[in-house]
Design goal:
- This protein is of the alpha/beta class.
- The chain has two domains: 190 residues, Vaccinia Virus protein VP39 (Rossmann fold), CATH 3.40.50.150; 66 residues, rRNA adenine dimethylase, C-terminal domain (Helicase, Ruva Protein, domain 3), CATH 1.10.8.
- It contains eleven helices and nine strands.
- The strands form two sheets. Strands 4-3-2-5-6-9-7 form a seven-stranded mixed β-sheet. It has a two-stranded antiparallel ribbon with strand order 1-8.
- Helix 5 links the parallel strand 5 and strand 6.
- Helix 1 crosses helix 2.
C-alpha cells in the first residue's frame, strides 16, 4: 500500500461502529464510500445491510484492489479502482437506478487531498442526501469556524454557505494505523439552501470569497478593489477597513449579489 496516498486506516472497532451508526444508512439507500482502505467501515456496513442497499466503494490504491475484490466477491459491493478526484461522478449519478435519487457519501478522506474532495462534492451537492467525512482536525476546525476565529477562512465560508455542518466524533491518532501525526474529526455535512436561495450567481460568489481571502491581512476594501468601493461596502454594513475573516457568510452573500447586479 502506498503511503503517499495519505492513507491512515481506522482500527478501533468501537469508533467504527459509532461512525456507522452516525451515517444512518437505511434500506434502499445509494451509498458511496471514498477511500475504503482495507474495508474497516465497509465490512460493518456490508454486514449490517448487505443486499438492502446499493453500495459502491472507490479506492485509488491499485495494491488494495485485488484484496477488496476478493473480499467482497460474494457480496453486493461494487469496487471501483479510481482516484475519486478523477472518478466520473456525473456518470455514476446518471445511472438509471440512481436517477432522481440522492446518495449518501462517506469516507475517511486522505489528509493530503481532503479539501479538493470536499470541493468536488460541493459541486454535486444537489444529488447528495448527506456526507459523513473523517478529516484532519485542522481542516475540520476550518469548516466549522465562526468569523473572527483564526481558522475562519475561504473554506469556512464556502462550505457553510451550502451545508449544515455538525461535529460528531473526535478521533485520536492512536485509533489509526499507521498512527498519523495529527488528530482527526468525524463530521456530518447536509446540503442546505439557507444561503443558496438568496444567492444570485454562484461563480460570482466563489470569485468574491476567493479574492477576499487572497490577502488575509489586508483590509477588505483593498482585497475587493475594482469590484466594490468603500462607500458601497458601508452601504452593505461591511466596514471597509475590516478583514475578510471578520465577515459573516450572510454578508459575503450580500456582497456577491451586489457585485453581480453591477455587472
Amino acid at each position: 500500500m502506498k503511503r503517499y496516498f495519505g492513507q491512515n486506516f481506522l482500527k478501533n472497532k468501537s469508533i467504527i461502529n459509532s461512525i456507522v451508526d452516525a451515517i444512518g444508512i437505511e434500506r434502499n439507500d445509494f451509498v458511496l464510500e471514498i477511500g475504503p482502505g482495507r474495508g474497516a467501515l465497509t465490512d460493518v456496513i456490508n454486514f449490517n445491510f448487505g443486499d438492502q442497499i446499493n453500495f459502491t466503494i472507490v479506492e485509488k490504491d491499485t495494491d488494495l484492489i485485488p484484496f477488496l475484490i476478493e473480499k467482497y466477491s460474494k457480496d453486493d459491493v461494487r469496487v471501483v479502482n479510481n482516484d475519486f478526484l478523477k472518478f466520473d461522478l456525473n456518470s455514476y449519478l446518471m445511472k438509471p437506478n440512481i436517477q432522481d435519487r440522492k446518495i449518501k457519501v462517506f469516507g475517511n478522506l486522505p489528509y493530503n487531498v481532503s479539501s479538493p474532495i470536499l470541493f468536488k462534492l460541493l459541486f454535486f451537492r444537489r444529488y447528495i442526501k448527506d456526507q459523513h467525512v473523517m478529516l484532519q482536525k485542522e481542516v475540520a476546525d476550518r469548516l466549522i469556524a465562526f468569523p473572527r476565529r483564526k481558522s475562519y477562512g475561504r473554506l469556512s465560508v464556502l462550505m457553510q454557505s451550502f451545508y449544515d455542518i455538525e461535529h460528531l466524533i473526535n478521533v485520536d491518532a492512536i485509533n489509526f494505523y499507521p498512527v498519523p501525526k495529527v488528530q482527526s474529526v468525524f463530521l456530518r455535512m447536509r446540503p442546505n439552501d439557507l444561503y443558496v436561495k438568496n444567492l444570485l450567481d454562484e461563480p460570482t460568489f466563489f470569485s468574491v470569497v476567493k479574492q477576499a481571502f487572497s490577502m488575509k491581512r489586508k483590509m477588505i476594501k483593498n482585497c475587493l478593489s475594482g469590484l466594490v468601493c468603500s462607500k458601497e461596502l458601508e452601504n452593505l454594513e461591511v466596514p471597509p477597513t475590516g478583514r475578510a475573516e471578520q465577515i459573516s457568510v450572510g454578508k459575503f452573500v450580500e456582497i456577491a449579489n451586489f457585485i453581480y447586479k453591477k455587472k
